[in-house]
Design brief:
Layout (H helix, E strand, L loop, with lengths): L1 H20 L34 H15 L1 H7 L15 H14 L8 E2 L1 H17 L9 H6 L4 E6 L4 H10 L7 H6 L5 E9 L3 E9 L1
Parallel strand pairs: 1-3
Antiparallel strand pairs: 2-4, 3-4
Helix pairs in contact: 2-3, 2-7
Length: about 210
């Protein structure tokens, strides 16, 4: 009997050790804003996690976009709340105007379906981002026959100067100096899939192209 008790205790200890040493799930890209984003249910937004053709940062861009689309109010109250200087109550500066506009949009928004990865969109985005980066181009025109042939999107966002996934998404959502708020409307539009490419840029160090499809 004593031997059985000892054996049972060893099994419990070894089981506990295995649990303690097992790898934990990676932190959410929004964890620095609130630990709540590490809750398991939010990992469903990481729809491109197992894709091999995009880099980790590129996959994280889709993850962050999905978190905004699925949980707009929580994103407002955790991420946007970290920028109190942009929430002016009197006459708004230009920065405050675009920030406040995004805050109002997200607080009133219903959750949207998640984007999934799209390899054709990725190939379209990558061709454009690579060529734009090499030439220093800014814009949406395809300046080569190869990129024109690979073009595959209904909505496209281009960001310059950022390579951090959260900063890329925030920049496009705030959409400063874009009166139409075109980038914001695209990221929060009725698209179902996307491809993302982050590449070096001759002038702005980095450029990101996000191509989306219905």
């Amino acid at each position: 009997m004593r031997n059985l008790i000892v054996l049972f205790c060893l099994i419990l200890v070894n089981g506990a050790s295995a649990q303690n040493t097992s790898p934990s799930a990676p932190a959410s890209p929004l964890a620095s804003y609130s630990s709540e984003w590490n809750m398991p249910e939010y990992r469903l937004c990481n729809t491109a996690a197992k894709v091999a053709y995009m880099s980790e940062k590129e996959k994280m861009v889709i993850y962050v976009i999905n978190l905004v689309r699925a949980y707009p109010v929580l994103f407002s109250k955790t991420v946007l709340a970290q920028y109190p200087t942009l929430s002016g109550k009197d006459e708004l500066t230009k920065d405050q105007y675009y920030y406040q506009s995004l805050l109002t949009t997200l607080l009133a928004m219903n959750p949207l379906p998640l984007l999934t990865d799209n390899e054709k969109c990725y190939q379209s985005a990558a061709c454009h981002a690579i060529l734009s980066g090499k030439t220093g181009y800014i814009g949406h025109d395809r300046n080569s026959a190869e990129c024109e042939n690979k073009k595959y999107f209904f909505g496209e966002c281009c960001d310059y100067g950022n390579d951090d996934p959260v900063e890329i998404v925030l920049s496009l959502l705030i959409d400063k100096d874009v009166p139409s708020l075109g980038h914001r409307k695209i990221l929060l539009g009725k698209y179902t899939s996307a491809g993302v490419s982050i590449q070096p840029h001759k002038t702005y160090r980095f450029n990101t192209v996000i191509d989306l499809y219905y």
